[in-house]
Automatic annotation (TrEMBL):
Keywords: Membrane, Transmembrane, Transmembrane helix
Lineage: Bacteria, Pseudomonadati, Pseudomonadota, Alphaproteobacteria, Sphingomonadales
Spans through the membrane: 20-41
Domain TadE-like, first and last residues per copy: 13-55
Pfam families the UniProt entry points to: TadE
Name of the protein in its database record: Pilus assembly protein
InterPro entries named in the record: TadE-like_dom
Length: 164
């Protein structure tokens, strides 16, 4: 019986046992931090892409996005390409598996600017372009279940067409 009580009082190896119990939690915490960081990085790339696409669209001529009419398909295609790749002639997407169909370009007109400033002589007011993008999130650790591969990242940005 004395050896049993001596065994209970023995503290050698307690730190190793505690560490062995905590390692799975620490590894999951580390992988979760990697996954969250990668998700926010992907989200930031999509946000930056739509902002650049909207800025590019804002520098196109008024005729590309007429008030009361349909947008010029060439201009829409250029905005989609710039949003997806970062350049007019780019082929590699900023976000893996993102295609031009994932980028939506629409426009509306703000009549409160009709005939004022650079919009003098235009009918219908100031054309405002809205660029929206969706990208499927490519999970780093899909099998661990932090964020599954069916998640998507969405972003949008608007810019007034300056006709430069």
């Amino acid at each position: 019986m004395r050896s049993f009580f001596a065994f209970l009082r023995d503290t050698r190896g307690a730190a190793a046992a505690e560490m062995a119990m905590l390692i799975p939690f620490l590894v999951l915490l580390m992988y979760g931090a990697f996954e969250a960081g990668h998700f926010f990085y992907t989200e930031q790339k999509v946000i930056k892409a739509v902002r650049e696409g909207a800025r590019f669209a804002g520098r196109l001529p008024f005729s590309s996005f007429p008030c009361g009419g349909a947008a010029d398909t060439t201009a829409v295609g250029q905005v989609q390409t710039v949003t997806r790749t970062g350049t007019l002639t780019g082929t590699v997407s900023r976000v893996p598996n993102m295609v031009d169909a994932d980028v939506t370009v629409t426009h509306r007109c703000d009549a409160s600017w009709d005939g004022q400033g650079i919009y003098k002589g235009t009918s219908g007011g100031a054309p405002i372009v809205r660029v929206q993008a969706r990208a499927d999130y490519a999970s780093l650790f899909n099998t661990l279940g932090f964020i599954d591969s069916t998640s998507s990242v969405y972003a949008s940005a608007e810019a007034a067409v300056n006709g430069i």
